[in-house]
Amino acid sequence: MSAPTPRETFEAIPRKTLTFPYPTHIQKLERLTKRLGGATIWAKREDCNSPLAGGGNKVRKLEYLAADALAQGADTLVSIGGIQSNHTRAVTAVAVACGLKAVTVQEQWVPLDGFEGTIPISETEKSVYGLVGNIQLSRLMGGDVRLVDAGFGIEHKPSLANAVEDVKSKGGKPYAIPAGASLHPLGACGLLRSFLEIEAQEKELGVFFDTIVVCSVTGSSHAGLVVGAALEKFEGKKPRKVIGIDASGKEEATWKQVHFIASSTAKMLGLPAIEDSEVVLDARFNAGIYGLADEATLKAIKIAAETEAFITDQVYEGKSMAGLISLVESQEIPSSSNVLYIHLGGQNALNAQCALA
Ligand code: PLP
């Protein structure tokens, strides 16, 4: 018997269905395309992929981790993020759907006192920041939400390790999920699966997406798409470009993490090593800091909302939308292109910065 192909190896990885039936919808953004006057813009809607508490990229990733947690007999999903983390809200939602408990450590990832060049957070917003949006949903779903003082960081964090030990000390069986589910061997699988849907969708739509734009912070969404492109290259398919737009404000760390995750996922599937040039991360649109918007972010959020009722947030997708708009307007993505923007979700965090309008 011959060795399985990378695609077969990937297809054999267990997954628990936590989303609406795939593929996620691809939508042509005609009014935005007209407004920008360049490349034709499309969006793959991972922001509305699941019935669980708003869905988003994290639910897709967690389909693989949840299957693993259940196979290991875990009783508690333990994870970490900022106070308004979409990820910890998704972990809590997935725990509910799997009949598990959730413990989420919520760190102070966003400097609410401000950062040069960004739009200030009002006193009203500060007073509701820990009460509305994602954290409100986690509490509603019965999550054990634990606020901790540590700042932003996409690496393995001690506060997660402490929470895991705490669950163990009380007789629980924890399953640890790092920030964004990214530094986990299965973290990139969700968005890799999303990427692999594109080819069949293109056939139906009669289009080829030569450029894909995605927001990147903890790295496994971007990495999954990079591996998808590498898999297509390995299979001799027409090449396409994946452009990550950094929203971390710490682009070197994010680039390294994307490269690491893509490389380890490629190795797991039996693909050739990922070259540095395959990980493209554009850091011009991150406002210099995680979590706060600058004028370009806000302008992009408004353009997308006003042209398409396409809602993006100040932390993630507003920044990748700012990148998309700039790359199209400047013709860095040429007018002849069909560009696919991957909408990863994040709208729940918008009401934590309610003055953004
Ligand atoms: N967009 C949204 C809405 C997110 O919640 C995240 C999570 O961090 C990202 C983009 C970035 O994805 P990743 O952390 O996989 O780089």
Word description of this protein:
The protein is 41% helix and 15% strand. It is an alpha/beta fold and 357 residues long. The chain has two domains: 6-53 and 185-356, Rossmann fold; 57-181, Rossmann fold. The termini are far apart.
Total of helices: 12
In the CATH scheme, what's the topology name of the largest domain?
Rossmann fold
Q: How many individual domains?
A: 2
Largest sheet: 6 strands, mixed
The geometry reads as globular
- How far apart are the termini? 60 Å
| Mean pLDDT across all amino acids | 97
Strand order of the largest sheet: 1-2-10-7-8-9
Please give the number of β-strands: 10
Q: SSE order, as H and E? A: HEHEHEHEHHEHEHEHEHEHHE
Segments where pLDDT lies below 50 for 5+ residues?
Answer: none
Sheet-strand content, in percent, reads 5-15%
List keywords for this structure.
357 residues, alpha/beta, Rossmann fold, six-stranded mixed β-sheet, 12 helices, 41% helix, binds pyridoxal-5'-phosphate
What's this entry about, in short?
With about 350 residues, the protein is α/β, with parallel strands linked by helices. The protein is built from twelve helices and ten strands. The termini are far apart.
